[in-house]
Amino acid sequence: MKAKQRRNSGKSTLADVAKLTGVSTMTVSRVLREPEKVSPQVREKIEAAISELGYVPNLAASNLASSTSRLITTVVPSINTPGCAQFSEALHNVLKPKGYNVIMAEDHYTAADESRLIEMMLSYNPAAMVMYDFDCSEENNNLLLKSTIPVVQVGGTISAPIGMNIGSNYGLAVKQLINALALKGYHNIALLCAAHEHHIVQQILSGWHSSMLSLNHSPHRVVSSSLPPTLQTGQRLLPDILLTWPELDLLICTSDQLASGALLACHDKGISVPAQLAIAALGDGDSAQLCSPTLTTVAIPYRQMGTLTGKHILAALEGDEVQESVTLPTQLIMRGSTAVH
């Protein structure tokens, strides 16, 4: 006896939905793409059939058949990239009410996967693409330019963006920390820089060197790690840093997560923060206010980046003039992890 096919198997087609509701496939397609153009009675009938059949629309095929995609693609090094969650939430809050959906893909800091990732995201025929803290090769830059869709590069400032650039200058952010804390009496300062995209690392190191030299402090205490900027990385690397530079009185980390890990390592080793070692960071995410002591940071405006990115995308899709580059200011926030010497 032939087994009865389960209706929720995901194999149903647009034609199956049309047959069940007694309408044309064009009407079903219109409900999926432009529901406001179909009467409420017909729309409810079709939506009920879709639910009963377990029909899943093929978004890639739908976008290729339509000149107006409702999909925005985002590429990131990792979903754990500093600020990614705040940025994504703000971006979604702007685009979702306008009928756009956002999907995200990550390359896990692996340059070898970059080309395939960009090609895959473009295969969805997106309305626009967002690169969050993501460096592109020249080959992929050309690929994006040929796509003619709006492209927004978000994170650090970029002198010659592919399309639009919304970000903050990480070099200036590092200078804010160093200059403020040097005034508090810190002299033996080190920088812990984990894996970030190349343009951000360049900005950070440039700001570090120029600021330290302007204060007549040695800039040699730098640890550049290929490990991701996570809590585990900070916790793992702090003992080696202190072994190399026992005179250290201030450690600046390139993310809140790194700094939180360094704080945990200090607690484990009985090192008093900030009395024996002060710690500061870039970012000001949730962990900065939850760790003990609370973390001195330079706040990077991740949520504002997300909101502006969404607004710029909508404006570009409407054919409006948009600003090519927007540099957002950062803010120094002094907390308990640093103290007056």
TrEMBL record:
The keyword Nucleotide-binding does not apply. PROSITE patterns: HTH_LACI_1 (PS00356), HTH_LACI_2 (PS50932). The keyword Transcription applies. Residues 12-66 form the HTH lacI-type domain. It comes from the Bacteria. SMART domains: HTH_LACI (SM00354). PANTHER family: LACI-RELATED TRANSCRIPTIONAL REPRESSOR (PTHR30146), TRANSCRIPTIONAL REGULATOR (PTHR30146:SF33). This is LacI family DNA-binding transcriptional regulator. The lineage of its organism: Bacteria, Pseudomonadati, Pseudomonadota, Gammaproteobacteria, Enterobacterales.
